[in-house]
Specification:
The relative contact order is 0.22. With about 190 residues, the chain is α+β, with helices and mostly antiparallel strands. Strand 6, helix 5 and strand 7 form a beta-alpha-beta unit. It is built from seven helices and eight strands, in the order αβαβαβαβββαββαα. Helix 2 packs across helix 4.
Length: about 190
Amino acid sequence: MARLRRTAARAVQPAVFAGGCFWGVQAVFQHVRGVVKATSGYAGGDAKDAHYETVSTGRTGHAEAVKVVYDPAHVSYGQLLKVFMSVAHDPTQLDHQGPDWGSQYRSAIFYANDEQLRIAQAYMAQLQAVHAFARPLVTRLAPLQGFYEAEAYHQDYLHKHPGEPYIVINDLPKLVQLKQLFPALYREGG
């Protein structure tokens, strides 16, 4: 049994996405079948540590991001990219998402390896070739150099505060869209 658990633990893969406020991005991925865990945090900056108070100034280079740990036997990296680009955020908004402005709210894919980079580049090229969006994609591709978990009060924010106006206006509609666009990937409860 211990051997089975070790094998299963090695099977999961990380993916890190930044698409505006991490509350909604985390909630979207928590509702995707095959996602083992989604954690709000910070990625993409030069500092060796990250905290909300400093990242929110926009001067650290970090973006609010979500680390998605997924099981490729149940959901592929390509499927996660589709959810990210079509539901979790708007990949055509430069350095903002909805009401949130600044480079810390940029659209970014932080790739963990060459395969993730190749898949992300191919998918973004495909989206641009078919003019999937009315405006150009501004999503940045960057190597994952580190991920810093956000403070506890940011984790599972949508589930803890479903009636908060920001959540109702900006994030709950994403869950509705996920269920509509990807019914086979959607799971209740997240």
